[in-house]
Every structure is written in C-alpha cells, then in structure tokens.
UniProtKB/TrEMBL annotation:
Highest taxon listed in the record's lineage: Archaea
DNA-binding recorded as keyword: yes
InterPro entries per record: WH-like_DNA-bd_sf (IPR036388), WH_DNA-bd_sf (IPR036390)
Protein name: Winged helix-turn-helix DNA-binding protein
The keyword DNA-binding is assigned to this record: yes
GO molecular function, one term: DNA binding
Keywords for the protein's UniProt record, in alphabetical order: DNA-binding
Amino acid sequence: MAGTDEEGLDDLPPSAKLVFKVLEYNGSLTQKGIVEESMLSARTVRYALERLEDIGVVDEDVYFADARQNLYQLNEAALADDGKEADAACVECD
C-alpha cells in the first residue's frame, strides 16, 4: 500500500489502526463490540470505521441477531495485504 496515491493503513489515525487490529484479532464485531474491545468512544469508532471503509479494508454486513446493528469485518484483501506488510517489515529488521 505504501507508495501509492491512495490512502493506506499507514496514513490513518491511531484510532483507525486500533480498530483494524481489534477486527484482525477478534474477527467480525458489531460497533458496540468494537467499542468494548478497543475502549474507544462510540463516536471515535464510527469515524475509524468510516475511514477503514473508505480505503476498502472493512466490510459492513447485517447483524442477523439484531438487524438494528451492523457487523464489521476485515475483507480478505486487507488480511492478505497486512500479512505481506508484516513479512516485509520482518525482513527489514534482519
């Protein structure tokens, strides 16, 4: 993602990166679940999710247990890109 004209994960605020990591670690969560796991305010989580959706790393689905809520999850491309970046960072450390 680095070196492109599009905004990437590295360009996001720390709150959005934290939400990304919470979703990466926990899998699919509702906004309320992300708030509880990240200990960020609901407003901050909404903003972070908006930013993550804008760059195309988070998908939003209907939460069937409660249709008033949405379920957020990382898409497969985000998981694959994050793994490649982590591998590249480890190679640089050697």
